[in-house]
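Running log. JK asked me to keep both predictions on one page so they can be read side by side. First protein, sequence followed by its tokens:
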Amino acid sequence: MRMTIYLYKQEVTDFTNLLEEDWLMPLEGQPATGAQLKRGFYTELKSQNKFDYETLAYMHTGSSVPSWLKLIHEGFEMPKTESSNCSAVVFVKCKGRIFAYTFGYAYSALNFSLIEPNFGLITVLNMCGSDKVRRVQGKTLEGSPFITFTQSLNAMSIIHQPFDVYRNLVTDISCPIDDEQYGKEAFGADALKIVVKDASIFEMDSYCNTFLEYFQQKTYQEYHDYIDYIRIVKNDPALLDHLDGLLCEALEQNDVFLNIVPVGFQLEEPELFRLSLADSKNRSTTEDYPTLSYSNVMDFIGKVIKFYMQKQKPTDILTMLKKIMVCPLSDEQQVSNRRKLYDNIAFECTFEKTRYAFASGVWYAIDLNYYQAMERELSHIPDITGELVLKPTHLNETEEDYNKRIGTESGYANFDRKNYQLPGYSKQRVEICDLLTANKDFICVKKMTSSADLNHLFAQMVVSAELLVGEDQYRDSIVKRAQESKKWDIDLSAKANGVNYVLAIISDKPGTLYQTLYTMAKINLIHQAKHVLNLGARVSLCKISVL
């Protein structure tokens, strides 16, 4: 029998509040809503008192007329037809912890704010071993979140699959298992999904005991310790409300860890950004701005709040963030796709010994010890801002214009958009760097607008370094271009040795560069910098200020 099992958090010690209230029969004297009456309630089942452990069960039955039935009925004579559904949940207490076995759609009625995150994920990894992952699914940690999925014919470790754990949050996993009692494969996310052969209602506590022992093991951390470090904050309304409150405070104060991030649009370099908000009568307040900046966003929020106050309708910033829409415009004023302003904010904060990062409308929780260790590791990457002295960029200056200007003013070779074409690949071009110095500083310039943009910068560095080591034609091309551009005789015979990749990041945030980078970018930077160092090159940071 296929079973889906959830574990409640350790602080949950009894059978109260395990289901959402609106799935239970209202208390006497309290009316039920129309939606509740339509879908029905979960009712407690009477035990036959045959259990030697604490347990409780609820069941829901109902019937409905499928929406597609009306379509068929228009052209055919049909008998009276209804579809029925039946769902149940069995709660089991084992070693002080409470488990939920869900059947049918009963999982939708659970109080997920009390559910232990990653219970199934960790249990499966401990059951199957670190090198027996067959399928892995994750969510990107940058830009517009999307689901990534890989599946291999043969079981192997995640780190050997085409799945980048430094840029994706693992959410779901499957592994083959050898235990004859539990079928051939286990699936793990927040829930554990597993086949139990010869299942018995009176042995559920025994299954719980087995899975709890697996969950409490630490063997998974040998290869998959990152699972403990970052998780999506979900199903916790009180925490999410508090974090949203911190976000609003930061927006009002222009906090150093807050940024407006124009991501997820079809237009890469829009001419304008249109901010708009429509009321219940479809009357809209609209303004066009050249950039999606903090000052422009706050200007529009101020106008919207003033508009609402005139109509004696008090409002708050969080409501505005979720109602205001951002739309990029091309030079022909054609409208591209729209997104909520709320989804275009990046913010980080520390609360109750946990680091929280907000990106694309999603809150992530990062283990504070891991975050601090990552900060220490990043602090060892040399910051040569004071040595290289790259001049500031102007507020609306493009990266292309900046590279042209600095190349001329500082005497650097401008390699921006002069990509190297891989032999044998007609459309495959590689970015060497943006600016090159006579001292073999490969300067890669990027505005700090989002984790996705910075990760593109890091990937550019890695590909360039790999080609320096592995491709004679690549090195010859750089030497030739330096000679043609600046009459420099750059020696790359030692391959990457002596080369310094300078990550020149444009930022108007006060403080050192590594401290103000987005957490998701920090994780990837550590990984990519180690790879480049192993190839023999150096890696440095350089902050470019904004006038």
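And the second, directly underneath as requested:
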Amino acid sequence: MRFLAYFLLMLSGSYLSKKPLISLMFVIPAIYIFLKCHTKKTLIVGVTLFLVSFLGVFLARFNLSNKSYIGVVVYSKDNYIILKSFCSFYYIPIKDNQFEVFDLIKVTGSLSSYNFLSYESDFNFNSFLSSKLVYYQLVPNQIVSIFKTPFKTRMFTNSILSSYSDYSKIVVGKLIFNFSTDDEYNNLISSNSLFYLLSISSLHVYFINNILFKLVNIKLSDKNSSIFIIFFTSIIYIFSSYKSSILKVLLFYIVNYISDNKLKEKLSFIARISIVGIIMIILDPSYVFSQGFIYSFSLPYFLYYLNDIVSMYQKKKQKYIRLIYIFLFTIPINIYINYELSLFSYPITFLLSPFVLVIYVFSLISIFIPSHIIIDRLSFILLKIIGLIDKINLKITIGEVGIIFIIIYYFLLLHLIFSVENRMRFLHVKSSLSIIILLFIAILPIKNSITNQVSFINVGQGDCALIRLRNTSILVDTGGNKSKDIATCSLIPYFKKERIRKIDYVFITHHDFDHYGALDSLKKNYSVKNIIDDNSFTCYTIKNIDFINLNPRLTNDENIDSLVLYFSINNKSFLLMGDAPISVEKKIISSYEGLQVDYLKVGHHGSNTSSSLLFLQTIKPKEAIISCGANNYYHHPNTEVIDNLKRCNIKIRRTDLEGTITYFV
């Protein structure tokens, strides 16, 4: 058990500087194991490993170089690399990148922070870099190659995938090459919690390796057969662009080989998987912050401890009992990722796995022997099945859950396993009911029934505000982007996170695409009750709240005609300016003398066509919210507007810097 304690201590050290509460979850059982089972010497080893993992994450925040950086490429894409230099990681943008993972290079350039365009609930490149422990952007002036790896994996991957059809590229790219695309099928796989089916191919490698081992074992000894499997897995690891899940498999086979052939006393399964985890954390401190890590290590531990319970049942039932417990185990993970519970996700994954395995085998074969027609047909069938699953899969929106929910859930699940194993029927029933009650409480929109909120949703260069009056939801604009479906990628996932199951009203301030472009998709994919896009009204009352239009006129100019919405909730007043220009601001000042505002949604994304100094001095807001995209083409917000806000001592909030901004009122 000491290796498990070592592994838990390393996890605790890794999380300590980023997520202290999660760190506490690991350190408590680790200390318990040490105090119960081991000596001071093993405790010293554990503390050393704890410090190693902590420093690996903590020191990444500091820049230990000046202008010249020598390091190893640890991540490589078409237009950028991630360089590890000493303890720090650097994002380096490179057009037509030719570098490969494990290349050793020297870079001179200028260092800065990064801020990339992001959207609420969509893939966030800033968060991705942070999870990789990258805190700096290094803009290169010169890059000198010191050593080039002989394995041109990225170029090889691009060359192979270019020969596949669009359908095959999606499937084979995920299964073999760790290549993902931003398309509707990728969203379907994620929304139906089927990412384990395709994105983590370690199970397929295990299965193929077991078959290969039996075949080569006919001619070779167990020892030589194991060496062959290690060699084969190494090739798969290179082909996968050094995928972490495959590295875990490779390390596991190496540890198995050492345990079976080099040690007098064989290691237990728990010791072997723990040693693999320790090695991976040392090699890549950021690995513990990936989704793949959650499945790769938590599930094997769970299955191991589940064996005693499963063995209590008849052999015919064991497969289904294991399936039920695995489904229970994955519930919090699926909720955490998708904000909803997909009831059929794991049974579907179980049923489709053999079919996916066939595709995986043919994909490997096609690298050496052309078999694209077969893969095209199989990939087409698989993706169409996934599309059908999306229509019939029963999903229950639960929303964002905190770490406390996850801790309580797994405590109850372990209590359930304990009661079953010890044949305590009363506790068994009690634990099962407790899990059901916990999930039922999570489903209930309790917070939404007793609170109000105003959220300025991060839709990039656009406008979208959510006003929730308890269980009544109002949207002011929808945002819009011609290269991305804001509704399905951003708004709907955000509503699920917030436990909002319908939109009762949608106000459209005007018909610029960045304000209403996502409306059609939102209507198609979500429940929208009422749409108000006639700005001639003066007052619209919803749940005893008056939404007053301060600019009810028609001039055939979208910005001049922009809806300007004023409302007050619990004595907190909001003014949403749309894209109204300074001429409208002057009209409001003269028409609504004495108007006071607590929160101002700045007009026209911070353009200098709005937010005049006179207007700000007159309405005197406490805070100003600017909705704009990072590094946008228009250079919003304008420095003149920022200066005006600062002169008036108004707190500035920006969606491009903070993401979605929420007020509970």
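Observation for JK regarding the second prediction: The two ends are 51 Å apart (CA to CA).
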